[in-house]
Amino acid sequence: METGAITSYIDVAQVTLYAFWVFFALLLFYIRQEDRREGYPLEADQSGFFNRDDWFFVPPAKTFLLPHGHGEVLAPNARRDNADRPVKGTRLGNFSGAPYLPTSENPMLDSIGPGSWAERSDTPDLTHHGDPKIVPLRAAPDFHIAEGEIDPVGLRVVGCDLVVAGTISDIWVDRSEQLLRYLEAVTEVGEAPRTILVPINFGVFRKTRDGSRIFYVHALRGEQFALVPGTREPESVTLLEEDRIMAYYGSGLLYAEPHRQEPMA
What we know:
Layout: H1 12-34, E1 62-65, E2 72-75, E3 89-91, E4 100-102, E5 134-136, E6 156-158, E7 164-174, E8 179-187, E9 195-199, E10 203-207, E11 213-217, H2 239-255
Parallel strand pairs: 6-11
Antiparallel strand pairs: 1-2, 3-4, 5-7, 6-7, 7-8, 8-9, 10-11
């Protein structure tokens, strides 16, 4: 027999190749299990039953320790986001993936369509040192508006119907990414003034005919700023609150005005 041969029909190279194939197959199986720790088992949108064919790939539950003493999370688990807040809409067709027609008075608050949000942790996103990442400038003395840039404090927030919704009172920055995230505004619409957050990426600075600047938000009408989800604390925002705020503005692109749900001419 030649060098490396184990028998007349098997040598070391063959065994190595077969061992690699077995290892690679087990690796693929492991990866396919790990990517199913969230969102599985799948749920059929017609029957509502869980996908019974997925049991083989759903991994056993694992406990994850959250940073900054925020407890533990078990995944996968049987928790479903729509268990506590069912979809407030009716299906427009009896086929998989059919869209829903909102049935409530204000779908922008009902977590449907572009206004849906995930049940994220109701705690602020923290820096490596355990401090809230996103805070107003009044709580972040090391940050300031760069020289030559627009200082939005004092500017009016205007909706797509050109109704003044409020006045900007502060700026919220991300201390980890060094980015401007939100504009804090005091509303002038609704039953009483409220302090709300306006995502910076949902608006643009514009000049009016008299030369003054405004912050124009196309997603909402002026009066709809009165119902923007608020924050529990005046100088921090939780992950869940962020999702709900962004969902409200996002849903406005479809639900703020009736014609936005119709086909484009």
